[in-house]
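To fix ideas, we reproduce below a protein record of this kind.
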Amino acid sequence: MIDYFCPSAADHGEALNVMARDCFVESFGHLYDPRDLASYVHATYGPDGLLRELADPDYAFRVAVEQGRIVGYVKLGPLGLPAPNPRPGAIELRQLYVLRAWHGAGVAGGLMEWAIDCARNGGAPELYLGVFDHNHRAKRFYARYGFEDVGGCIFRVGEQLDDDRMWRKAL
């Protein structure tokens, strides 16, 4: 059975950080030169990355846990994408990761529903996200929740530049 809760930096930070790092490497690590991947992982999951954001009130997190193990999470934060004409107060779904063994088990849906409700209840008029252009599974998932492609952007992993797509959902 999957349980969901909002983590605290003190109690859950390191476990969430490990899960997030492992999930990124599991999903995308094969796409990158090891030096680029190591640089990205250090910046994103090092002391100035996810752990700092977990303690920042501008970010909101929700994790999915099964038998004490974090198997997925979602992170909302300030809009950082180069969105075309965002409405004031728009926010960004920064990450939604689920370990591969839990794909198709409803974990991502539970996290997405919380993210949409959280954004809406916080008064955000729009919710944006970035998705790797070749991640067709994720794009189908986002479309089911009413997100629409609104343009391209670049995602940097070390020195490698990837084509991403920006998606938006009106709330």
Summary: The chain has a mean pLDDT of 95. The chain has one domain: 2-170. DSSP finds five helices and seven strands in the chain. The helical segments are 9-28, 34-45, 50-54, 107-121, 136-144.
